[in-house]
Amino acid sequence: MASAQDLGSQESTAQENTAGETDSESAESELPQTSQGDEFLSLAIDTVAPSTVTTTSEPFVTVRATVTNTGDRRVDEVAVRMQSAEAIDRSEELRTSLVPGRQQYDNVGDFETVSAGLERGESAQFVISMPLRSTLGPSLGIDEPGVYPLLLNVNGTPEFGGAARLDDARFLLPVTGVPRDPTALDPLGPEAGPQAPSTADPVATTVLWPLTDKPRLAAGVPGSIEDRVRLVDDELADELAPGGRLDRLLGAVEFATTEQLDPDGRLAESMCLAVDPDLLITVSNMTRGYLIVDDPADPTGPAREGTGAQAASDWLTRLETVTDSMCVTAVPFAQVDLDTLGNVGDASLASAALESPADIVDTLLGVTSTRGIIWSSSGQLGEAGAATVRSIGPRTALLADNSIAPAAGGAVAGVVGGNDVLADLAVTVFDAPTATALAAVGDQPATPEFTPDEQRYNLTGDSRTARLQDALGAVTYQALSKPQDFGGGPPRTLTIAPPQYWTADGDEPAAVLSTVSSLLRSGLATPRPFAELAAEEPSGLPVETRTVGQAGRDVALEDRVRAQSKRIEALRGSLVEAPQSELTPQRYTAPLREDLLRTIGTADRAAANVRMDGAEAGLDSIYRSVTVLAPGGVYTLASEQSPLLLVARNDLPVGVNVRLEVDAPPEMTVTDVGVTALPARGSRTITVPAQVDDSRNLAVDFSLTTLDGQQLGEPSTVNVRSNAYGQALAIITASAGVLLLLLAGRRLWHRFKGQPDPADEGYERP
Questions:
Q1: pTM above 0.90, yes or no
Q2: Which of 220, 227, 690, 701 is the most exposed place for a label (fewest CB within 10 A)?
Q3: Rounded to an integer, what distance in angstroms lies between the CA atom of residue 179 and that of residue 59?
């Protein structure tokens, strides 16, 4: 979108091109583009027909677009023309050609008037067409297959100013075949005939189709048999319902792989559904009814009924049907950031994020998923992430092809995970420019982290149609690239990987799959099953990871995740597995650990700290549910060795083994009672052997801990008083005993001598 600050200065600069735009047009009556400032016109592409040109297409391109006056004054003489550039011949041009000022658009059409004048806020829709090639007048100059950048240029005269170029819109046009030129002198001659692409070297193509979502389950809620799950919002119900995003993503697969459209199963063979186990867990629980919390920061607070149980059930049934005959693989749980996971450095979290997902997918869908490949949600992998992936056993990392440095001979071999790693991690790659273009599709366009700076530009100025066209061009490019462009070597391969959290919606998913299907049917591409990526043998040549930016690293969040994971593991190790109970320690604590993975996922980083707060609060509440009850008043011991009787209570639905920690003064000795088993939602009296050497009131602190020492509940202080008299009582008792022995001995002595004892009753002194 173009704009101007000072239109009064335009007349003096009318003969000069705006810096950076001199290569964008080659018209005789070049107008200056407005400088940065107040906006005037906004140009948006509505439709492009055909979206992909084939030999059977009409011999011209038609664009429907809308121009809107977004400025603060009227704009007169609004006119538009179409232009084109030479076909892209390097993959990076799939993005750089769309950056303003980076591409020459030498094939120029005539200006066509759109409106005599547009008032503030007014819009005008128009249709403009231009021949692909022509011998009679201006054309797009497209005479062979390729991917071509096109541009719509809009001029106008703002009130109080001069004529200027006020906006433009760029998009890519994939051309898999050039139709016959009806304007040629000899329309039936070979030069005017259709130009078909070469199919001598088809590209072996793999398509990953992500089915994921943002984390929706409320944090801090442990597993349960009876309770319904709680979600932070009900947006997932809309996405699963007919017309929703996930409905469209799944529906596009169902439609494109029907026997009528994919009779040979080529598209189905090349595809693999990449499913987030977190989404499956959420949808599966939704089918049984669920609640929506009023405040995500208070996950256990007031809640209302969810509305998507039926939509969840229908969608899950459809997914089970599709995956019954198609490749399916699991992405890391909640699309976790692998490098953040590595920074946390917790083995139990790594297992839950990378090993458990495949088991979850297999269980919930009743399939055998393809294993062995870890798809990085960021497309990158640093040393910490690589070491974590390797820690779970042999795996292949799926990364963007520009996120690793090439090995010797240009072959992609592996990635070194750090100096402490002994072996290389195998790597397979997806096409970065294609992934970047696909990431821009949908209602939340984004530019991936692995996209180079020179290929970045503001996506908000492009319409969804334009961004979809760019993606179709990127998907098509590798198949249309000439074999000699690759200089021989191994067979050409292409892995198409949209972002794991992909907001493509409406007809966009179907358009992408239709393009891939057309390439497969035409012979420009061949199917390459996803399982072959995992089965590939790495060359054994190590390559270094490129620098993975850590500017946005949240060390404080990583520390919180690490600390809570230790508490969860301590709790799990103390819980008791009862054979008669369905709620096992693993089932009870798994959602708590999964909460931590959702916190460090890439789909919704903005909510990370709120989710972490909920996870901590929930775990704190669980820990407070196991405590020792303090007796009221002063606890009086009958003797110095009388035991203490304490009551320990467990409000959890699972039994727990605890230890009793005692902080007593030196005058009191307490014997360790060892491990005590507390029943689920019950209490137990703990008899604590104690010895007191003082009759004063003594304050003793008691607390319960997990088996490895994590404190449960709050400490209880007990005031203990003993009836014992300590050392003085011992002396008195001993003295009395000695006196008793002396007196008894005296009596015996007198009897032995036959003398009466003066102490005898009736004794008279002589």
A1: no
A2: 227
A3: 6
What span, in angstroms and rounded, lies between the C-alpha atoms of 213 and 512?
19
Under 8 Å between Cβ of 450 and 403: yes
Contact 83, 205 (CB under 8 A): no
- Annotate 385-396 with DSSP letters as a single string: HHHHHHHTSS-E
Q: Which of 223, 281, 290, 288 is nearest to 583 (CA)?
A: 223
Give the separation between CA 119 and CA 14, rounded to whole angstroms.
24
DSSP code at position 646: E
Largest CA distance in the chain: 170
Least Cα distance to 614 among 291, 219, 302 occurs for: 219
Report residue 306: phi and psi, to 5°: -80, 160
Give the distance, in angstroms, between the CA of residue 558 and the centroid of all CA atoms in the same chain. 16
- Joined tokens for residue 508: 């966009």
- What pLDDT shows up at residue 123? 96
List alpha helices for 18-125, DSSP H.
93-96
Distances (CA, A) of 709 to 346, 559, 702: 19, 20, 13
Please provide the DSSP assignment of 181-225 as one string.
-TTSSSTTSGGGS-BPPP-SSPEEEEEEEEE-----BPTT----S
- In this predicted structure, what is the pLDDT of residue 723? 62
Please state, in angstroms and as integers, the Cα–Cα distance from residue 425 to each residue in 391, 544, 715, following that order.
10, 11, 48
- Tens digits of per-residue pLDDT, 624-681? 999 998 776 666 665 666 788 889 999 999 999 999 998 888 878 888 889 999 999 9
DSSP string covering 303-336: EEE-S-HHHHHHHHHHHHHHHTSSEEEEPSGGGB
How far is it, in rounded angstroms, from Cα 741 to Cα 753? 19
Q: Are 702 and 646 in contact (CB under 8 A)?
A: yes
- Tell me how long the chain is: 766
Compute the distance between CA of residue 353 and CA of residue 599 in angstroms, rounded to an integer: 12
Cβ pair 140, 130 in contact under 8 A: yes
CA proximity to 156, closest of 63, 246, 76: 76
At residue 553, the pLDDT reads 82
The tokens for 324 are: 């019954």
The answer to whether 403 touches 379, Cβ cutoff 8 Å, is yes
For residue 444, give the 3-state DSSP assignment: coil
CA quadruple 104, 106, 107, 112: dihedral positive or negative?
Answer: positive
DSSP string, 527-564: E--HHHHHHPPP---EEPBPPPP-TT--HHHHHHHHHH
Give the span between the Cα atoms of 567 and 570, in whole angstroms: 5
Distance of alpha carbon 220 from alpha carbon 243, whole angstroms: 32
Distance CA 99, CA 517 (A): 29
Region of 515 please: left (phi>0), alpha (psi -120 to 50) or beta: alpha
The closest alpha carbon to 255, from 625, 560, 512, belongs to 512
Q: How far apart are CA 235 and CA 220, in angstroms?
A: 20
- Which is nearest to 162 in space by CA: 67, 40, 59, 302? 40
Q: Mean pLDDT in the chain?
A: 85
What tokens were used for 233? 């919002």
Q: What residues contact residue 599 under an 8 Å CB cut-off, 6+ apart?
A: 219, 557, 561, 608, 611, 612, 615
Alpha carbons 624 and 710: distance in angstroms, whole number: 12
Q: Give the pLDDT confidence score for residue 689 in this predicted structure.
A: 86
CA atoms within 13 A on the CB side of 377: 31
Amino acid identity of 388? Answer: T
| Of 628, 332, 400, 478, nearest in space to 340 by CA | 332
Of the CA atoms within 13 Å of residue 523, those in its CB half-sphere come to: 7
